[in-house]
Amino acid sequence: MIKNKLPYYPYRDYMIKKYGEPLFRVPIDLELGCPNRRPDGSGGCTFCPENGARATQTLDVKGTEAQLEAGIAFAKKRYDARRFMLYIQAYTGTFTSVIEQKRHYSELLAAHPFDAISIGTRPDCLSKATLEYLSELNKAIDVYVELGIQTIHDETLKRIGRGHDWQSSLDAIEALKAHGIKVCAHIIVGLPGEDRTHYVQTAKALAKLGLDGIKIHNLHVIRGTQMADEYLQKPFAILSEYQYAEALIEIIRHLPADLPLMRFATDTPEADIIAPHWKMIKGQFQEYVIAQMNYRGYSQGDLFEPQHETDFVPRLKPFKCADGSITLWNEEFRDHYHPKSGARAQARELFLAHSFLHKRLEKAPVRLLDIGFGMGYNSLLACEEAQSIAKNRLEVSALDQDRGILLESAAVVQNTDKDRLKWPAILHRLYDSGTYEADRFSITLYHGDVRHALNEQTGLFDLIFLDPFIERSNCKMVTLDLFICLKKLLKEDGVLICSTAYAATLSGLEHAGFTAMPAGREQSDIQGVVAKHSALTSKTKTVPYRDPYGIWTDRKIRRYREKEIESIKEEIDFG
Fold it and tell me: Contact at 8 Å (CB) between 440 and 368?
């Protein structure tokens, strides 16, 4: 992973480029209401709460003057803000006469030296008079209009009671552009009845319109809304953190590289949310998306237009092992990917030997789940075994979050005279398409966090290879909670081989219901664990790693275990 590299164009960078520094938004609710609601306030979009999605920092503040003071004070305290953008946020900012718009906007703009104004509104609420007024205002101060588009699919728009169709959004964008006004779009990912195909179609359509910014929100089912009633009566699919991240990454890749991304997560007080109940906080989610895009070599716009091929620049240093195989040195983790005894030696003596792969392939087809594919030694040697025996087929499902290591490996891995397969070619194919098919084997490579990627797996496996690289740095791969998931994926006569034999790993396996035995070559750096199903309950007192929600960082997992150990010590000392 390349640290600190943003794979998308953040709105903050756009503002710095345009204004010299970020403009911080001061959200205002003019209480103008919405043309899509009845006079009593009922109706409207099924997802919209009664307060019109008002900003959380001013939820309890009455009056525009007080909202201004609260919004500016909040931005100064939290972000050390110096320059500001007036943001007409809640409900529909243009749902009143032009005379009233002028009065409201001029009073607010006179109250503070704002650098720009952003107005949230609907595509069907931009009259000719409003457009002309905004065009005039744009001569005095930068005007941005944020359009709630939500989706391009009319069937969904009708289902959520949006009150306009996709053509209305197209007409509004065209009219705003014709008047020289900057346009930003809001879309919601996860609306009922939509899947990734719908999201991508929306992204592709918006990508062609020359927008000045885009906000992407995951759907929140909020208490008191029509959608909440619908969900409680008949629940529909809601995106988890990982599911939304996968959809979001694909959307970003379809957007132009120069389109500023304003935000991709929304804030709603937890008490108001019926679903989803994420365990990731917004900052962690953002870091996860950035890391996953960097690991996979994705960037904003790489699916919008053909990318020019660039020369491959290695980032990891090759190292020749004792058995002649080549491994890589990872500067981030300060270690080699394989034991110095050898990458091939580890694959043969630990993973292949202790799984009895040869005997299994002699008898029947084998399904292998290879977690931590890395440079591919374990899977590729297993595939060569299947090709050599030429009796039964080997089906490999491989997981790894670092797509870039495939190119690193293809550049340094050397075939031997005994190799039946051309490893560099296979690695390149996996990098490009994620799959490789041959007569006696197949490899399907899934990229992403192992905890999410496991959800893509179906059926049971004969073998599970688990290579966490460095246990302490990748402890999310050796938690009790992950082992419980793996136990459900392993056949009754199956075997799990892990390349680490530390006490926390052994304890986690045993608590999950495995019989775990250390394995490896004596007085060697090739060490691991062989685990099989067991009906016995573990009696080990060693504290395993825990990750109860499947979203914790490695650092949090380590700290939680350390606290558990300290707690046990205190009980012993004072019990």
Answer: no
- Let me know: does 9 contact 260? Beta carbons within 8 Å: yes
Q: pLDDT exceeding 70 applies to what percent of the chain?
A: 93
Distance CA 122, CA 111 (A): 26
Res 65: pLDDT:
85
CA distance 95 to 217: 23
The pLDDT, as a whole number, for residue 574 is 55
Cα 467 to Cα 374: distance, rounded to the nearest angstrom: 9
State residue 4's pLDDT score.
Answer: 53
Task: Give per-residue pLDDT as tens, 27-44.
Answer: 888 877 777 666 666 667
Of residues 8 and 283, which shows the higher confidence score? 8
Q: Contact 22/15 with Cβ under 8 angstroms? A: yes
Domains of the chain: 11-296 (3.20.20.70), 320-550 (3.40.50.150)
Q: What distance in Å separates the CA atoms of residue 215 and residue 226, rounded to the nearest whole number?
A: 23
Q: Return the SS3 of 203.
A: helix
Report residue 291: phi and psi, to 5°: -65, -45
Contacts (Cβ under 8 Å, ≥6 apart) of 102: 133
Check if the beta carbon of residue 50 is closer than 8 Å to that of residue 41. Answer: yes
Longest dimension (CA), the chain: 86
Cβ proximity of 423 and 413 under 8 Å: yes
Decide if 322 contacts 524 (C-beta within 8 A).
no
* Bridge partner residues of 541 (DSSP): none
% of the chain with per-residue pLDDT over 90: 70
- Counting every residue, how long is the chain? 575
The shares of helix, strand and coil residues in the chain, as percent rounded to the nearest 5, are 40, 20, 40
CA distances to 487, 489, 514 from 535, in Å: 12, 16, 8
What are the tens digits of pLDDT across the range 492-531? 999 999 999 889 999 999 999 999 999 987 778 899 999 9
Euclidean distance between CA atoms 352 and 331, whole angstroms: 29
Residue 85 CA neighbour count, 13 Å, CB half: 21
Other C-beta atoms closer than 10 Å to the C-beta of 51 total 15
Q: pLDDT tens digits for 72-119?
A: 998 898 889 899 999 988 667 777 788 888 988 899 999 999 999 999
Cis peptide leading into residue 276 (ω within 30°)? yes
Joined tokens for residue 181: 């006004």
pTM over 0.70: yes
